[in-house]
Amino acid sequence: MKTLTNHSKTLTKTTASRAEITDFYNEATSDYSFWSKDLNMHFGYFIFGKTNPFRRDSMLNQMNRQIYKRLQLPKLKSFVVDLGCGMGGSMRHFLKRNPTLSMLGVTLSPFQVKEGNKLLEHTNGIILEENYCQTSIANQSADGVIAMESLCHSGHSKESLREAYRILKPGAHFVLADAFLKKTPATLCQGASYSYTKLCKGWSLDGLGVISEVKENLQQIGFSNVTVEDISFRVAPSVLHVPFAIVGFLLKNIFQGKTLKHQSWSNLKASFYALLSGLHLNDFGYFIITAKK
Ligand SMILES: C[S@@+](CC[C@H](N)C(=O)[O-])C[C@H]1O[C@@H](n2cnc3c(N)ncnc32)[C@H](O)[C@@H]1O
């Protein structure tokens, strides 16, 4: 208890180095094929009567659909950037939906660049190994920018939000889907503080932004019409898949006689702490933020 008390008092932000993030995704990305056959590395969006809560990929792809809709892209020939694109799951979903679209994704992981680009062959999409806080993308070139569960690695830093602003065309939208804190880290309850630290450590996160501060930062940067939607209850059914996915993944590896890499253990532990964090509804929430340049 003592450590927990100290913890919640002193906890501000954790730090994850770029090397740690890269190493984590180089080694643990292939495990995500167990989470999603489409290699979506995010949680899902549940709509009663529309998505089957027992079919994970239907909810994960519904999240892609929701993000796409909020981009409000022009009808023809648009260009969209995915900041922290993983294996390009959302990119492939968008490109399939809109044949006139071209997309560029950035990630820190060379594994994701190599394998993700194989899956994007014969599409108008490409993944580059770049830092989303400082990309090589031209000013005011994108008709839309998305960031799904990726900016948490930099604590939803102002730097990453500014980069989204820089590359967007005036009038275009930035759509961000992620978990956020509802209060400052120092004021989280003990249980939330404990699972938050474990979650950040396991997934190499710099920390989650405080939702009110992130909204303010977006407005300060110059975004207008900043809409914040709390979709925690829509995301919950896919979060509830976590324990089953963990047990299934472990059993599969045991039957195949494989030993788990430490990155895979970190991933499993962080997934479990994500579930625990999600139970602290006063402290954490899952939000979609839409902002116009
Ligand atoms: C949980 S995955 C989400 C992937 C994808 N958005 C999805 O939903 O399937 C987080 C991604 O963020 C990327 N990432 C983290 N920090 C980054 C940075 N500074 N620059 C570029 N990509 C980064 C990781 O490489 C990884 O691809």
What does this molecule look like?
The chain has one domain: Rossmann fold, CATH 3.40.50. Helices cover 45% and strands 18% of the residues. It contains twelve helices and seven strands. The protein has helices at 2-10, 18-28, 32-35, 56-71, 89-97, 110-119, 158-167, 190-202, 211-221, 232-239, 242-255, 262-278, and strands at residues 79-83, 102-107, 125-129, 142-148, 168-181, 224-230, 284-292. S-adenosylmethionine binds next to helix 2, helix 5 and strand 2.
In short, what is this structure?
By secondary structure, the chain is an alpha/beta fold.
Give a quick set of tags describing it.
Rossmann fold; 45% helix; globular; alpha/beta; binds S-adenosylmethionine
Number of strands: 7
Report the bound ligands by name, code or SMILES.
S-adenosylmethionine
Gyration radius, in Å: 18 Å
Main β-sheet: number of strands, strand sense, barrel status? Answer: 7 strands, mixed
- Would you list the SSEs in sequence order as H and E? HHHHEHEHEEHEHHEHHHE
Q: Which word captures the global form?
A: globular
SS strand fraction: 15-25%
Spatial separation of the terminal alpha carbons: 46 Å
Oligomeric state as shown = single chain
Instruction: Please name the CATH architecture.
Output: 3-Layer(aba) Sandwich
